[in-house]
Amino acid sequence: MIKITEENNRVILEGVKDLQLDHTFDNGQCFRWYREEDGSYTGVAFGRAANIGCIDGTILLNDVSLKDYYEIWKDYLDLERDYGEIKRKLSEQDPDMEKAIGYGHGMRILQQDKWETLISFILSQNNNIARIRNCVEGLCTAHGKPLGKYRGKMQYAFPRAEDLAKLRPQELEPCRLGYRANYIVETAKQIAADDGRTLESLGKASAKEAYEYLLSLSGVGPKVANCIMLFSMEKYDSFPLDVWIKRVMNQVYHIEEGNVKKMQEYATEHFGAYGGIAQQYLFYYAREINSRRRDRSEC
Fold first, then answer.
1. Could you give the CA distance from residue 76 to residue 19 in angstroms, rounded to a whole number?
2. Which of 65, 166, 177, 242 is deepest in the core (most CB within 10 A)?
3. In the chain, where the domains are located
4. Helices 129-143 and 114-123, axial angle in degrees (round to 10)
5. How far apart are CA 82 and CA 18, in angstroms?
6. What does the alpha-carbon distance between residue 226 and residue 151 come to, in Å, rounded to a whole number?
7. pLDDT tens sequence across 145-168
């Protein structure tokens, strides 16, 4: 049971289990959170800027009211899901998954804004996390609503679909999005055409319906669609396959890196409803074991 109190313009959460900030904010699922010198993270979600810290296992939501906590942050941080039970189920009779979980044990899947997640993962194509962050921040700074100065830095909301839909791709050149600028403008037009109603409804749609709709959008392929479903629609059986996951599925489960179909089938059979959560633990594990190999090769 989480003990929740409000004090001095912050919400204090005691008794939160299975949440480590770096495991959650630095795992490639979000791109607007930055680590401060004190280990806390500052970012923007749903048009609100906040700072989230952790001291001796107590989570501090700074500049957050109790009302904001219940309206935004409780669900955003996915605090009502029992990740301890999920980890237990995933690691049953799978020592490799148990080992992978050890590297990202404090990870939770954020429940993010669908529109922001859609655009962010279109920008993620053929990109590394640092560049994705720069692309997203550039887009927000140039076309998002100013939220005011927060912790010494001007903050911006994520741009609305109707605003990006009015642009020409050339007008996004200062954001340095490259070829992705065309996708962003076209997708914005598609979403703005019905004021985002279809996109917003996908959380209640079947995985098949959500997947097919997302693939109809400009710049969205299978990997991006699965990321959007996992990180903003609570479709936790979605199993995005990027280069890291293909590599670790080969290294751990001995499936050929090019055999995407077999990887998806394996995920469905062995991870089931928690395939996407398993994918995130594997993502951490892949980065760790491959960075170790690089380190050894450089010695």
1. 13
2. 177
3. 3-80, 114-232, 243-298
4. 130
5. 8
6. 34
7. 999 999 999 999 999 999 999 999
Report, as an integer, the average pLDDT of 103-108: 94
Assign domain 243-298 to a CATH class: mainly alpha
CATH code of domain 3-80? 3.30.310.260
Q: Confirm or reject CATH 1.10.3720.10 for domain 114-232, answering yes or no.
A: no
Tens of pLDDT, residues 172-231: 999 999 999 999 999 999 999 999 999 999 999 999 999 999 999 999 999 999 999 999
Position 36, amino acid: E
End-to-end CA distance of the chain: 47
- Catalytic pick among 74, 87, 114, 223: 223
CA distance 149 to 276: 36
In eight-state DSSP terms, residue 72 is I
Strands 146-150 and 153-156: antiparallel
pTM, full prediction: 0.94
Q: How confident is the model at residue 295 (pLDDT cuts 50, 70, 90)?
A: very low
pLDDT at residue 1 tops 90: no
Which residue do the tokens 């039970």 mark?
85
Spatial separation of the C-alpha atoms in residues 99 and 248, rounded to whole Å? 13
The crossing angle, in degrees rounded to 10, of helices 260-270 and 275-298 is: 120
- Helix ranges, 12-56 (H): 21-25
Q: What is the pLDDT of residue 291?
A: 65
**Distance from C-alpha of 136 to C-alpha of 186, rounded to nearest angstrom:** 17
Nearest to 228, CA basis, from 205, 247, 246, 194: 205
Per DSSP, helices labelled H in the chain are 21-25, 66-68, 74-76, 83-91, 95-103, 114-123, 129-143, 161-164, 180-192, 197-201, 207-215, 222-232, 243-253, 260-270, 275-298
Assigned token pair, 181: 């600028």
Residue 149: active-site member: no
How far is 25 from 38, CA to CA, in rounded Å? 15
Using pLDDT thresholds of 50, 70 and 90, give the confidence band for residue 292.
low
